[in-house]
Structures are given as C-alpha cells and as structure tokens.
Amino acid sequence: MKTAITYAQAEELVKKYNQEPFHIRHAEVVSGVMRYFARELGYAEEAEFWAIVGLLHDVDFEKYPEQHCQKAPELLAEINAEPEIVHAVCSHAYGLCSDVEPTHEMERVLFAVDELTGLIGAVARMRPSKSVSDLELPSVKKKFKTPAFAAGCSREVISKGAEMLGWELDDLISRTILAMREDPLN
User: Which of 38, 60, 67, 133 could link 50 by a cystine bridge, Cβ 3.0 to 4.6 Å?
Assistant: First the structure.
C-alpha cells in the first residue's frame, strides 16, 4: 500500500496533538517496529506505509484519552489520511475502545506490538545498560509474568496479538526485541 501522506506530515500531526515526550517516543518506537516487520514479513515496498501507521496509531490518545480511536478519524482527516490508515489506526485498540477489527496482517502486527513495545521498553530501562541491545527473551518473559510490573501494558492484549498473528508468544517477543534493537535510541 502506498500512501499520499508523508512521514513528515504524520509526524507533524502526532506532535500537534501530543506534547508529552513519552507519547511521542512511543509513537516513534512503534513506527520503527512496524517498519522492521514490514521488511521481515515480505512487505518491504509498504514499509513507509507501515511506519506511518505505527507513528499515527495513538494520535488522539494524549489529548482525548476518553475518546481514543473515536477521535482519530477526525484528526487524521486533517492530513487527508487514506481510509486504510484510518482503519489501521482504529483497529489497534480492537476490543478495548474500538470495534474496528484488525483484518490485514499489518493491523494485526500493530495490535500485537503496541503494548509489547511498552513492556520491552520498561524491562530495558531496568537493566544496567538501559537498552534493548543486550536484552533477551527470558528477561522479558519474567517481567511478563509479573502483572504489577509495567501494569499498564496488557498481557492479555499482547497474548491475543500473538494469537491473531498465529505466532507463539515467545516468537512475538523475540522478534519485537530484534525490531527495537534497530533503533539506536533503544
């Protein structure tokens, strides 16, 4: 899928509605992970599209948390985002605050990695290196089994995401760690 909007336009929209560095950084991390998975899953020609969707997925969250995924279509209209982008953005919170089901593999990846990137990032920040560069699956699995750790990262959503993709949970976690390693800021 090609998109008429640019990464810069998407970034500008995200920053218009999100001022907290944490939210902006989360959007960037998810964007990078989505770009990685596009290449890894045979969608290299769509990598920019996947990255833009990852960047925009929480566009409405900071300013409109009670209307998350409900307000997004209106905000995305400001940059003339294609219906495919709107659908993908709204589908990432399927069953939580959206009834838009992830149907494309890209949408299922986004659903799976959104919460997981937060958990992996939290585990990495606890390490002496503060990085994913030396983070391995067992460390994440240990914290995954500790509900109080990074409690805002839904283990149920992460598990459901792996199931949607037809992947083992360990595979999803391992592959997402590798994706996050590509970002030098992780």
Answer: 38
Q: How far is CA 24 from the centre of its chain?
A: 12
Domain total of the chain:
1
CA distance to 11, 16, 50, 124, 145, per residue, from 56 (Å)? 8, 12, 10, 24, 29
SS3 118: helix
Selection from 9, 57, 88, 47 nearest residue 179 by Cα = 47
The predicted pLDDT at position 170 comes to: 98
In a domain, 98, yes or no: yes
Residue type, 179: A
Contacts 24+ apart (CB under 8 A), 6-9: 7/48, 7/51, 7/52, 7/55, 9/79
**Which range of residues forms the domain containing residue 153?**
7-181
Residue 98 pLDDT more than 90?
Answer: no
